[in-house]
Amino acid sequence: MNPTYDFANKVALVTGAASGMGLATARAFADAGAAVVLADVNQDAAERAAGELVSAGHQAIGVACDVTDENQAASMVERAVTTFGRLDMAFNNAGVQAPPSDAAEETAENFDFVNAVNLRGVWAAMKHELRQMREQGSGAIVNCSSLGGLVGLPQRAAYHASKHGVIGLTKSVAVEYAPKGVRVNAICPGVIDTPMVADMVTTQADAMAEITKQQPIGRLGQADEIAAAVLWLCSPAASFVVGVALPVDGGFTAH
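The structure corresponding to this sequence follows.
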């Protein structure tokens, strides 16, 4: 049974919120009483998900945002503040996977795209979230890294580079902004049952079977298990937790 949090009168923003871990986390924030901004590159899906939350009695809006475009990231935060008056919590979750590639054959296009979304996108979103939270003197940010931010795996260099980068970004910003009342942490999900992973299971069956086998818990993680960890990191229960990269991976990185 998950703990419950009272986020009434708080505002949460989630990127990559139209599906998977982002959608589960947006729903969890709403269930805890927060007003939620669901941002996604797929505007229709974001608005549809937000509409479902509103129909259930929650406060929510859907916003189109391609996090690789800093102007869109700035507009996303501005829309959150204009609509709900403040910004208390953010889960910078938007991310993409790269097709596996021999490191000597990786294309610059693949490397640049993966890092544009997974690293630069987190940087852009966080930059503008921090400006609002700095003004308020309070806030909590969780950036989505990965088990790929903690270990290396063959044929995953571009993706793992981006996710290692998220951890370095998180730690540096965390020590800079903790004195300003803003806590910044990262989460490192293992293999989670999401649409992105379902696609990988289909297209990279052997590799995925091997990765799943390395999770000592013996199963895929669930999106709501990631949401539970994000909400804890954003809550007063984690008030002394700053700059961590928290594995939520069924024991994968404990090997």
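Residues 108-136 form the longest helix (29 residues).
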